[in-house]
Amino acid sequence: xxxxxxxxxxxxxxxMEVELxxxxxxxxxxxxxxxxxxxxxSLVSTLxxxxxxxxKSPETWxxxxxxxKSPETWxLDVPLVHVSLRFELANARxxxxxxxxxxxxxxxxxxxxxxFSFETTMGQMDELQRQLSAFLACETDWVESLRPE
Length: 149
Known about the structure:
The protein has two helices and nine strands, in the order βββαβββββαβ. The N and C termini lie close together (10 Å). The chain is globular and about 45 Å long. By secondary structure, the chain is an alpha+beta fold. The longest helix has 16 residues. The chain has a five-stranded mixed beta sheet. A four-stranded antiparallel beta sheet has the order 3-2-1-9.
């Protein structure tokens, strides 16, 4: 089972519509939203920094359309969506915990808010970084990664 899935639905020169699915042991959450290549590149950069330090310090990647920029988040001017992924070492054996916060408030009665986590390995983090780089280079239209051990 892949815990991280990203699928490109549509793209033009300015942005792309993607479907992001994150799966924990007891739930799966999907968000369909418009992002830019720079937004995906910021996730790759977050993973690169985490991997370079071998997980010795946590890294957070956030897609936040409400709160603006801070040292740990990037902002995109889209309708009320928040996705935050925090990567941290769970133990000395290379197990990585991914803490997820997802919220979508479109105001249509289908608002969603989820907070959960899952575990994977440092090797899976390297694989996610590789797949996301291929996604950005338009070598593939989907990413399926972060398998549990």
